[in-house]
Amino acid sequence: MRFLGYTLGDESAPIPPPSPELFEAMGTLLEDATKAGVLVATGGLAPTSMAAKITLKDGEFTVVDGPFTEAKELIGGWALMECRDLAEAIEWSKRFVAVIGEGEVRVRPADAVWDEDGGYGPE
Amino acid sequence: MSITDPTTAIEAVFRIEFARLVAGLTRFVGDVGLAEELAQDALVDALVQWPEHGTPRNPGAWLMTVGKRKAIDRFRRDRNLDDKYAQLGRDGESHEPRSAAPPGTHGSFEDHIDDDVLRLMFVACHPMLPVAARTALTLRLVGGLTTAEIARAYLEPEATVKQRILRAKRAIAKAGVPFEVPEGEDRAARLGSVLEVVYLIFNEGYSATAGTDWTRPALCAEGLRLGRGLAELAPDDAEVHGLVALMEIQSSRLHARRGPDGEPVLLHEQDRHRWDRLLINRGLAALDRVRALDGSRGPYALQAAIAACHAVAFRVEDTDWPRVVTLYGELSEIAPSPIVELNRAVAVSMAFGPDAGLDLVDQLGASGTLDGYHLLYGVRGDLLEKLGRPIEAAAEFRRAAALTQNGSERQLLAERADALQPIE
């Protein structure tokens, strides 16, 4: 089962740049997750100062440059994981956030599809 | 059981750590069966202590430490194993966690733990064991599945699986299979056995031989995970990447292979928008690694290359069939089999017309090598249908339906027959 884990943060409370220890610890964790066949893909997102927001309304596009300071919960880093169940995905997510030291990570199933009745479940 | 239940969380940790734990303990005590018991004993301790004292920052290290302590306790109690204990003492093996391990990581706890996991895979997949035993042992020791889970996956009684695993461990101990990664001439054959087991696990999930489910995604995922892990542990073996490429690409079709009622959907009829492009890209990347290692002519690599031909075609009409024919030709040289010939016949029919394909299929039928194999008749039926010979085609589909063991497939074939020649 596939899961997306992602960190959430508030840009008004900036995170200091990662220390060499953190880099190494994260590297080791990613390696371990890869060796376990768990890590499918991973990445990090730039701050919203480098982002664009696109809105389509009444047939018109509006594009706005970041930063988006009104946003309170922003995705920072993400990892797509292949796990047997949510419990395993939670455990790996714990390890990701433990490397960062503090913060919030959310984990969501990422391979379910909407069925014809409007329900959501694994195929 | 709620997701926040501590037992669930601890069991998830255990499953994640199990292969390394068993591998490290096997190196410590020299016996996989004993290692597994010690690992289970460590889990019992964890289930008692972690809810009370909190989950350790490095759970893998905790479990390994406890496992090793229990090993030493056992050896102290059992006079017969005195020699083994003395051996442990002489090895000077430290069983304390290295304090340098940063919180949240467990990889740095044991030196060479990856090598140990690789050793464990080679032992569990030893060719002296019957294939079913290798599969069960690998799923148990490397995959960390419980015997109940393995039994469910293969639709067998749990007692059968338990016995099979027990006998396998005894056979390994009796034969004195060394805990090592084979080198030299031995390596290719032993690695072949590992790849065979991993692919069997995957395939059981991909096209289930028994039962009514056309696919069992959990087993596919297990096989794929084992393969991906193996690619990290043995990165210089091209066929490992070939197998991973094949499994990634086949996995990409899992959602498209089943219809809304669980019935099988054949490759040329699948909605390709439902193919998982992330997995396809991973498969293509794995094929790049094969090429970088000059391994493009290995059997798994060739099968993966064929799968890639389909994967990069957004519509059936875009498939490079002549290339598929060429690849099957190479495969039939390297790893000939009647099934490869059958697939080659299908590719030939797509590239050069159903007549050409039917000629090959008839030759195969005449050779007798595929008697009783339902796909031979299924393919023949398909080609006859394309050639406008519906009655003969229906007969072939009915033969195929009678021979397949998979309920969904049987129904599909029966329906195709009835569509061509309705039963009065």
Task: Describe this structure as you would to a colleague.
The complex is a heterodimer of chains A (123) and B (424). Chain A is of the alpha+beta class and 123 residues long. Chain A has helices at 20-35, 86-100, and strands at residues 2-9, 39-44, 52-57, 60-65, 74-82, 104-109, 113-114, 120-121. The longest helix of chain A has 16 residues, at 20-35. The radius of gyration of chain A is 17 Å and the shape is globular. Chain A starts with a strand and ends with a strand. The relative contact order of chain A is 0.29. The mean pLDDT of chain A is 86. Chain B folds into four domains: 6-93; 125-178, Arc Repressor Mutant, subunit A; 190-319, no CATH class; 372-424, no CATH class. Helix content of chain B is 68%, strand content 0%. Chain B is built from 19 helices and no strands. Chain B is elongated, with a radius of gyration of 25 Å.
Summarize this structure briefly.
The complex is a heterodimer of chains A (123) and B (424). Chain A is of the alpha+beta class and 123 residues long.
